[in-house]
């Protein structure tokens, strides 16, 4: 493929004036350019919309958003645009690059085209080289043909060999004649009607561009690994930020796990369980009413934020436990949040028990956060506002 692209670039960059006429050249540029006077030499055109309706005695080079070459060219054509339409005979070569390329008139020299869609109904006497997603040659060719693309359609009389590399399918129209040999590479055999004639035979190479089962498994594992790495890294960063920016809130959540009686811890978990389970039901019920749709959307955003914070503070809570157990320190630092979230992420990978541990810590964190936010909104103690 690198050789193909290199060949294409070299071909397109060959100066079109190498065999140019000796007459004076014309240079025209405008937003909407319409050329109605003949050029005795080379013509160089540029614009968003370019239309050439006068003969060019030399080469024609144009660049723009849309190009229509509707007059004969005695030399070569070099066109680059989003939409290209060549509607008049070309005595030399045609080199075109764009999104949509249509060649409706004969080309006496070679044809080189690179685009998304290339449709040639004008017969090319020289060689034909095309790279396109969808390529169609409906009037044959007078020289060898090479096409790289996805869906390729051939029709008409081809004087030389035809080489096709298709990632999709190759179609031959009824009555197609190839005086040389057809070489084609595709995932499946081409549709060749009985009326088509290929004098020197067919050489087919089966090529599947989809990965095999082993490669697919490797790609799937790599994708899952990258996803897990990105998820864990993001969780570590968020947990570290929360623990570092709001240390009092992290310490308050940790204090509820250490200072309260086992019954209080169980009640805190039940509160978190009730909120996490009941809120989705309430959201659905509100969404079924016309007046409650807006409130359900707002409640959904708050619920999603609560779930995210509960997961993050579950990791921070685990990190604070490590700090108290091994560092003998009650203060919660940013690195405690990151360490705890890393441990929680690794525990979550364990089957069954990992999910259970994450669920228990998340339920407790959700209940603790709700209690802290409630006391913050309706303070009963002077110290409560300092938690945030």
Short description:
This protein is α/β, with parallel strands linked by helices and 388 residues long.
Can you walk through the features of this model?
By secondary structure, this protein is α/β, with parallel strands linked by helices. The protein folds into two domains: 205 residues, no CATH class; 175 residues, no CATH class. Helices cover 41% and strands 27% of the residues. The chain is built from seven helices and 15 strands. The strands form two sheets. Strands 1, 2, 3, 4, 5, 6, 7, 8, 9, 11, 13 and 15 form a twelve-stranded parallel beta sheet that branches. The protein has a three-stranded parallel beta sheet with strand order 10-12-14, with no helix packed on it. Helix 2 runs antiparallel to helix 6, helix 5 crosses helix 7 and helix 6 runs antiparallel to helix 7. The chain is elongated and about 95 Å long. The two termini are 60 Å apart. The N terminus and C terminus are likely disordered.
Mean pLDDT rating: 84
Would you tell me the structural class of the helices and strands? alpha/beta
Low-confidence spans: 1-22, 383-388
Topology, number of strands? 15
Descriptive keywords:
388 residues; alpha/beta; 2 domains; 3-stranded parallel β-sheet; 7 helices; 41% helix; elongated; disordered C terminus
Indicate the topology.
Blueprint: H1 2-13, E1 26-29, E2 32-35, E3 43-52, E4 60-69, E5 77-86, E6 94-103, E7 111-120, E8 128-137, E9 145-154, E10 157-158, E11 162-172, E12 177-178, E13 182-186, E14 197-198, E15 202-206, H2 213-245, H3 247-259, H4 262-287, H5 293-327, H6 334-348, H7 353-377
Parallel strand pairs: 1-3, 2-3, 3-4, 4-5, 5-6, 6-7, 7-8, 8-9, 9-11, 10-12, 11-13, 12-14, 13-15
Helix pairs in contact: 2-5, 2-6, 3-5, 3-7, 4-5, 4-7, 5-6, 5-7, 6-7
């Amino acid at each position: 493929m690198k050789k193909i692209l290199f060949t294409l670039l070299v071909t397109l960059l060959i100066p079109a004036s190498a065999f140019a006429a000796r007459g004076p050249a014309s240079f025209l540029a405008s937003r909407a350019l319409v050329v109605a006077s003949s050029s005795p030499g080379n013509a160089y055109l540029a614009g968003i919309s370019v239309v050439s309706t006068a003969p060019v005695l030399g080469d024609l080079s144009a660049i723009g958003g849309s190009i229509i070459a509707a007059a004969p060219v005695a030399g070569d054509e070099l066109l680059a645009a989003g939409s290209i339409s060549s509607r008049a005979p070309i005595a030399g070569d045609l080199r075109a690059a764009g999104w949509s390329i249509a060649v409706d008139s004969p080309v006496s020299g070679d044809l080189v085209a690179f685009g998304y869609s290339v449709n040639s109904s004008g017969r090319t006497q020289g060689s034909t080289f095309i790279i396109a997603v969808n390529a169609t040659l409906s009037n044959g060719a007078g020289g060898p043909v090479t096409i790289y693309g996805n869906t390729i359609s051939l029709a008409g009389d081809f004087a030389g060999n035809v080489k096709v590399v298709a990632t999709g399918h190759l179609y031959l129209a009824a009555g197609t004649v190839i005086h040389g040999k057809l070489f084609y590479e595709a995932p499946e055999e081409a549709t060749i009607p009985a009326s088509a004639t290929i004098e020197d035979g067919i050489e087919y190479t089966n090529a599947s561009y989809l990965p095999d089962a082993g490669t697919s498994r490797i790609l799937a594992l790599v994708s899952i690994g990258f996803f897990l790495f990105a998820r864990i890294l993001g969780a570590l960063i968020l947990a570290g930020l929360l623990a570092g920016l709001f240390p009092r809130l992290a310490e308050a959540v940790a204090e509820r796990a250490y200072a309260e009686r086992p019954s209080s811890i169980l009640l805190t978990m039940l509160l978190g369980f009730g909120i996490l389970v009941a809120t989705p039901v309430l959201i659905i019920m509100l969404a079924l009413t016309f007046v409650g749709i807006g409130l359900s959307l707002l409640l959904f955003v708050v619920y999603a934020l609560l779930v995210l914070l509960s997961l993050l503070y579950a990791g921070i809570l685990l990190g604070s436990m490590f700090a108290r157990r091994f560092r003998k320190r009650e203060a919660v630092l940013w690195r405690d949040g990151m360490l705890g979230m890393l441990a929680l992420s690794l525990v979550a990978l364990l089957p069954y028990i990992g999910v259970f541990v994450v669920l228990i810590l998340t339920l407790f964190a959700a209940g603790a956060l709700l209690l802290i936010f409630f006391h913050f909104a309706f303070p009963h103690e002077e110290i409560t506002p300092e938690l945030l």
